Every structure is written in structure tokens, then in C-alpha cells.
Amino acid sequence: MKRKFRKFIDKNNNNGILDSQTANAVYNWCLQQIKLEEIYPWNRVNCSRKFNNFYDVKGGFKTFVSLLAQRLPENSIELCKHVIKIDYMDECVKVCTEDGCEYSAEHIIITSSVGYLKQNMDKLFFPPLPSRKLKAFKSIDFKTMNKVYLQVDECLPDMQFQLIWTSKKHTNLPEWVYDIFAIEIKTNCLLFWFDGKGAEIIENEPAASLASICLNVFELFVKDVKISKAKRIIASKWK
Predict the structure, then answer these.
(1) Domain Amine oxidase, which positions (predicted)?
(2) What is the pLDDT of residues 78-99, one digit of tens each?
């Protein structure tokens, strides 16, 4: 198995992105994950488990995605396709997109969020899903979650912390800030975690305003650090 893995890496690693040490580390890490899942039921695996060694891969995790994608037939990946209907009436499943395209397959795998399925499952599937599956989806308590990344000039110590709001009387801050539940810092990048209603509201918030308010919240909790402004902002969106 290891020989096949190394052969695959050597064959597809045209740009020399992965060295031998990193490739071996990835292989061993994958084996460790498999062993963990074999020993423990999936819902009992400790997802926060820490490993002794961490490896930085040039280009990030997308490097591995790119290597795998090279094995797929040309033009087999379609991006930015809004699926509006999944017809599984016949043996062949048909997937229809908003731009009028139609794709057929024997089997399909759907990886959308639970929140999206709860909002669209009544109109997405034809015929409608069985009542037991609809009931199962509706019983899942799932909130919207979004992230806001801020790049700053200042170099900060790495840290992460949860936010506990003891008061909601900050008149200079909008209501949605109270749905920030955690902040992570990595050198010159700040990550703000949102959930609930606030996570939905910020999707329509102007970037400059969102960045400024997030920094105000940061300075409210970390009083000994002053940040001039955000150089860049990236905010996730579901809608």
C-alpha cells in the first residue's frame, strides 16, 4: 500500500511540491486516522486529538486535492453550478442546474450543509424524500456558522480564546457582535467565529464596516493590543 502511495506521489508530483519526508508523514498520518476509526466508533473519536508532528505543505491542503484531480478525466469537474433539482424517479439519477444543464449518473453524493438541506429539501428532490428522512433532517438543531478573516500589519502572538459576554449594553456595537463566540490569532491573521442569527446578518454587512467592528470587539477583549486597521478581509457566506 505504501509503495502504491509513493508511486502515485512520484508520478503526479511534477512541480516537486512534496518532498520525501512530507509524503511519508502524510502517509503515516492517514494510517493513524484509519486505525483510530477502526478502534473507536466514529462518534467517539476525539477530533481534538493532537499529534506530535505537524508538517507544512507548500500551497496548503489544496496541493493534495490538485494531485487527486489530475487523475480525473479532463473537464469532469464543474464549478459554480447551482443545483435546483435532483430527480431520482428512474434508475438513472438526473441532476438539473439553474443554467439548464442536466447530468445523469447511477449514484450521486450530496455534501451540502444540513442547514441548506433543511431550507431546500422540499423543492430539491423529486420525488420528495421519504417522511422519515424529512423528519430526521428537521429534528437536527443546526445553526448558521460563518468565519471572518482579517489580515493586519501587526505581528501578534498565536492564541485562541472563547468569548463570554457578561453584558450586552455596548451601545457602540451592533447586536450581531454578541454572536461572535471565538477568536483565533495566527501571526498577522485574526479569525472571528460567528454562529446563529449574527452569522446570517454579517453576510450583508459591508466589508469595511465588518472589519472595523470586529477589531473593536478584539480590542474590547484584548485590551493591551492595539491594531491600526485591517489590510484585508475574507468573510465566508452561505447565501
Answers:
(1) 24-238
(2) 888 999 999 999 989 999 999 9
Quick one: how many helices (H) and strands (E) in the chain?
Answer: 7, 9
Contact by Cβ (8 Å): 201, 176: yes
Q: Measured between alpha carbons, how far is 198 from 103 in angstroms, rounded to an integer?
A: 36
Task: Confirm if 94 and 125 have CB atoms less than 8 A apart.
Answer: no
Q: Which helix (H) or strand (E) holds 192?
A: strand 189-195
Quick check: 94 and 104 in contact, CB under 8 A?
yes
Query: Residue 68: how many CA atoms within 13 Å on its side-chain side?
Result: 6
The reported pLDDT for the residue numbered 63 is: 75
DSSP labels, 35-54: HHHHHS-GGGS-TT---S--
Q: Which amino acid is at 61?
A: F
Contact, 115 vs 238, CB < 8 A? yes
